[in-house]
Amino acid sequence: MKALALFFVLSLYLLANPAHSKFNPIRLRPAHETASSETPVLDINGDEVRAGENYYIVSAIWGAGGGGLRLVRLDSSSNECASDVIVSRSDFDNGDPITITPADPESTVVMPSTFQTFRFNIATNKLCVNNVNWGIKHDSESGQYFVKAGEFVSDNSNQFKIEVVNDNLNAYKISYCQFGTEKCFNVGRYYDPLTRATRLALSNTPFVFVIKPTDM
Q1: Which residues form the signal peptide (predicted)?
Q2: Which residues constitute the domain of residue 79?
Q3: How many angstroms separate the first and last alpha carbons of the chain?
Q4: Which site in 9, 116, 133, 213 is 20 to 30 Å from 100, CA atoms measured?
Q5: Nearest in space to 131 (alpha carbons), one of 177, 78, 193
């Protein structure tokens, strides 16, 4: 019954534009217009998501939804650090561990609708050790605004928020809010026909996910 309810909720989000279309942004309501919540973000076990700890961010949709998020290098001809954030094709792949850190240094748990920094916690070479923080970068060829990993930039890396999709099912989405403005946009999926990968990008249709502890 719970799975059926989640499928119904998520189906409402999948009625928007195709994943491969150019991004034509619909601005979300600013944070002060969104109902505040005193309930922290919860993982699939119903436990509070702790600041600075490692979790998997996994698609809430099985089948076409894919699995967890991974940091990869889609351009095999490049010697640069891996910077592309993709959704794994396999439902059974939880992806790479991700650390969620609130912008508020006093926060011990992750709260919805508050600014967060996302970073991959994976082994890298010495040159790439700091190139793991999420940010948004425009790609002129595709017209997309992709989630990319790189060095921490204060007016880009910490501008993400986790928003509640269904609090009974612990299902969430991510929004990106431009620094110094009230413009917020959904982070969704984009199928890249050149690399045949599903990437995270700003979208009218959000990527709906659940959060799994890495010790499961």
Answers
A1: 1-21
A2: 2-213
A3: 23
A4: 9
A5: 78
